[in-house]
Write a structure and sequence with these properties.
By secondary structure, this protein is of the alpha/beta class. It has helices at 64-73, 86-98, 115-119, 124-141, 162-176, and strands at 38-42, 78-81, 103-107, 144-147. A four-stranded parallel β-sheet has the order 1-2-3-4.
Length: 178
């Protein structure tokens, strides 16, 4: 599922950089392009950006557009908005649609939310099928650039057991490598 986020309007030349003497091949990487930051793993679907803290009454007006503007002014050109569960993955895609060329989405279930597979109406395989369908449609539309956020988070087992995390990590990994 992982793809590159292209910088429209920028010609990047491949100088064929190769560092084989150090054991690391870097052919195809343009290190000058690293001066144009891309923020990965940003949780812009969090209610905080809408002014809600801990889902209480509004603390401030929705300021997501201002957050993006400030980041752009600071040189951040692209954002990879994290989907941490099915709903947040959908929201991440909506942000990618709202801010085309600036925001892109990931689709997946964070390990701390992996219990959602166990509790899903229709079962975990049904939820997994929904995640896969959303990822494939989003990829085809150009809004989804990676599968995630998924993995293992054994520092916060109070949210989800190790066994459940491992089970659904493996199943999501199967989809990601398809």
């Amino acid at each position: 599922m992982a793809e590159e986020m292209e910088d429209e309007g920028t010609d990047v030349k491949d100088e064929g950089t190769d560092m084989k003497d150090e054991g690391t091949a870097t052919k195809g990487l343009d290190f000058a392009d690293l001066t144009r930051p891309v923020q990965v793993g940003i949780n812009l679907t969090d209610a905080t950006y809408r002014g809600y803290y801990r889902h209480s009454k509004p603390a401030h007006p929705d300021d997501l557009a201002q957050v993006l503007d400030r980041a752009s002014s600071a040189g951040v050109r692209k954002f990879l908005v994290t989907g941490s569960d099915l709903d947040q993955s959908r929201q991440a895609i909506e942000l990618a649609k709202r801010y085309p060329g600036q925001c892109y989405a990931t689709v997946g279930v964070h390990p701390c939310s992996a219990m959602s597979f166990e509790k899903a109406p229709g079962g975990g395989e049904e939820l997994l099928a929904q995640i896969k369908d959303l990822a494939e449609r989003g990829k085809a539309d150009g809004h989804v650039k990676a599968f995630g956020e998924f993995g293992l988070d054994f520092d916060r087992l109070e949210h989800c057991s190790q066994a459940v995390q491992e089970k659904w990590f493996a199943r999501q990994l199967d989809i990601a490598i398809e």
